[in-house]
Structures are given as structure tokens and as C-alpha cells.
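=== RUN LOG ===
request id: a7f3
mode: sequence -> structure
chains: 1
length: 279
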Amino acid sequence: MSLPNFLIIGANKAGTTSLHSYLFSHPEIFMSKIKEPMFFAFDGKELPVNSSGIINNINDYKKLFEDVTNEIAIGEASTTYLHNSRFAERIKSYIPNVNIIGILRNPIDRAYSNYRMNVDFGIEKRSFKKCVIEEMKIGSKLNSIVQGKHYLHLGLYSKHVKKYINTFPEKQVNFFLYEHYKENPVDLISQIHDILGVNKDIVPDMSLKHNVSCKQDYIKIKRSCFKTSKHLYKLFGKKNITKSQLTPQLSETMNKFYRKDINDLMDLLNIDLSNWLNY
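=== RESULT ===
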């Protein structure tokens, strides 16, 4: 059976769902039907509660690609891969020639988008300010935070980007900016098509919006899943809350938190992120 020759590794809340769908529509690209199988994060490990779709053994992972025929590019998208430096070496041990593709979003916007999503799902009842302040206080004790609520720390990219750069040959590691993707998705996808060696003249239908039109139905399903677990439902509470705002004062606090990491990222990727620094 085939294994992927490219991976979309994140970042979380940076357009990977739409990118997965656009690449899926290309006739020369095979994408796993399951987005976020997270195999390289959970290989050989016990699966967490509510882990539908997550794969932790190589045989099940290979089955995701058993329908590959004559496609040139074979891939999957798991945003978890970006946020732990150990995963790069694990990926290389299985698929050393893989192309790594990542999209990085302004970490302040990324954190707030993540927060709003969790409020919509009914699994976050704190204000955004309280989330930020509490995570800053916890610091390195991140294991005490419920998975999916590392709003700040999921935006610290440089350490993990550096690991991928140091683990794979330069030509196999490709990072793009979410701002570019939003402003000119056709151009960015064309660049990715070029990396994957597929026909760049085939342009996906950009009128299709992913993670938007079915959002309310997905929210209902997600809430229903949490209600089936009494422990989680008690933990997260029964009521949704009004989303708190990202105030200028809070943005300034977060900007100071991210400043060093953004500067490190600019040096690593040799790109201008002054708009992130001057948020």
C-alpha cells in the first residue's frame, strides 16, 4: 500500500480544512478522506476520549491510502503535527522523502479564532482575557490545560518550524502565510501544485466555502458529542456564552508574549512578519 508523499501539518485555524478540500478536488492528488488522522502524533499510543478518526497504528493508517490508483501526489492533513517537535523525526522514520507543507497565521488572530470556535462548540465558558491570563500564568505546565485550549502556545511556531527545517532537506519543507492564502488562494495553491508536481492549470472552485456553510450543523453535532460524556459536559458547562472581544489592550499583551518568537521565525524563514509585530 501507498503512504503519503506530502503532509499538511498546520497550523490550527489557518485554512487547512479548505486547503484539504481544494487539493482533494484535483484529479492528480489523492487526499485521505479523513482529515486529521494524527497518526504521527499517536503512533503506538492509547487514544484519548472522543478520538473518532484518530489513528494509532500503521496498518490502519495505510488503509487510508488503499484506494490510490495513478495519482501523483498522496497526502493527508493533521494540524497536530506542527505543534510537537518530536513528530518531525517520527514522520521521517516512516516517509523520509515526504514534502512538508504548513500555513502559519498571525498568532493573535489564530488564538482568538480558536477561542471563538470553542465558544461556538460550547466547550469554552471563560472570557478570552481570562483564557490568555491563565495560560500565561501556567507557562510550561501546559498539561494542566484541556486539549484544544492551548490558545497562546499553539501560536509559538519557531521552535517547531526549526525542527522540521533541521530534520528534512530544505526543498522538502515549505511554509506559507495565511494572509497570502486569504488574499490570493489561487496563487498559493498553484505554488503547492508545483511542489507536488501536479498540473498547475487545474484550479479548484474557490466559490465553495469550507468550514462555513455547515458550521451550525457541525456545532450541534459537536455539542451533542460532549453531552454524551457526563464528565466532559460537567467539566465544560451546559451553557454557551457570548464571545468576549479581543481588545487593543489584550492584543498588546499578546503581542509582547509573541514578539521574540516572531523575530525568531523571521530569521528562520527569511520572511517579513512586521505586520505581525505591529498588530
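=== NOTES ===
The longest strand covers residues 99-104.
The domain at 6-277 is CATH 3.40.50.300 (Rossmann fold).
=== END ===
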